[in-house]
Amino acid sequence: MAMRYIKQLTAVTVLAACCAVPATAHATAIVATFDVDAQGWTANPGEGSLAYVASGGNPGGHVQITDIGVGFNNGFASGAFVGPAFLGDLSAFDGGTMSLDMATFAGGGGTFASFGRVLLTGSGNTVTFDVATAAPAGGWQTFSASFDAASWGVSQTDWLAVLSNVASIGIATDAFDGGDTIGIDNFQLRIDANAVPAPATLALLALGLIAVGYRRRRR
Questions:
Q1: Cβ-based neighbours of 45, under 8 Å, separated by 6 or more
Q2: Same domain, yes or no, for 42 and 145?
Q3: Are residues 62 and 40 in the same domain?
Q4: What are phi and psi of 189, to 5 degrees?
Q5: Are 125 and 161 in contact (CB under 8 A)?
Q6: In terms of domains, do 208 and 125 share one?
Q7: Which residues lie below 8 Å from residue 167, measured CB to CB, with a gap of 6+?
Q8: Tens-digit pLDDT profile for residues 27-56
Q9: How far is residue 41's CA from residue 17's CA, in Å, rounded to a whole number?
């Protein structure tokens, strides 16, 4: 009977593992390395320009956003909008990490506090996070943020509503009160491939174990 119980338990475990595949069979990272082109990234209209540069990145290519010095536009000074690979349903990356590399290529004067602010818009709502507080000096620097509701200061319900239908992700790059040029490289969203199983998978496993225990008790 012990051997039969072990076989039943193994079968339930395998079943749960198989059912878990659809929940985890998504990309564990989306990355813009700019090694070939700008990957669909654009500049904030009317506030600056975006150029692809094939070298000088971290490493390889990168994009540069040049501020034209006309000031703020609805609280979002010159900046970049990420490419289409990062739009749509991003709910699979809830609890993951957002990161990017930035460098200053030109600029000076007073600083803008909005530099490094990320604006994530989806389902008609916008949430923000200040991933950086000052323009990087001395070369490329990596900035990162937890990609979860608590870090972005919203409820889990509102956060998932935004992530389920992301329409745009903007990064404020206006660092100084004069003209400036900021580089961006290696923007990515990632989640741990070894994350805790989805709740549905855990529930399935629990039901299977209960069923095995019930059958064993009857016998």
A1: none
A2: yes
A3: yes
A4: -115, 135
A5: yes
A6: no
A7: 87, 121, 122
A8: 699 999 999 999 999 998 778 899 999 999
A9: 38
Whether residue 48 is found in the same domain as residue 137? yes
With a cut of 80, say whether residue 6 has pLDDT above it: no
In angstroms, the CA 13 to CA 141 distance is 44
64 and 109 co-located in one domain: yes
Report residue 58 as tokens. Answer: 């971290």
Half-sphere exposure of 197 (CA within 13 A, CB side): 16
Which backbone phi and psi does 69 adopt, to 5 degrees? 75, 30
| DSSP per position, 139-164 | S-EEEEEEESHHHHTS-HHHHHHHHT
Can you tell me the distance from the alpha carbon of 95 to that of 92, in angstroms, rounded to the nearest whole number? Answer: 9
Residues 62, 148 within the same domain: yes
Q: How many residues does the chain have?
A: 219
Structural domain that includes position 4: 1-27+199-219
pLDDT in tens, 105-120: 998 777 777 889 999 9
Chain centroid to CA 161: 15
SS3 216: helix
Asked if residue 137 lies in contact with residue 104, where contact means CB atoms within 8 angstroms, the answer is: yes
**90 shares its domain with 185:** yes
Q: Do residues 13 and 90 both lie within one domain?
A: no
CATH number of the domain to which 170 belongs: 2.60.120.260
Residue 97 clears pLDDT 70, i.e. is over it: yes
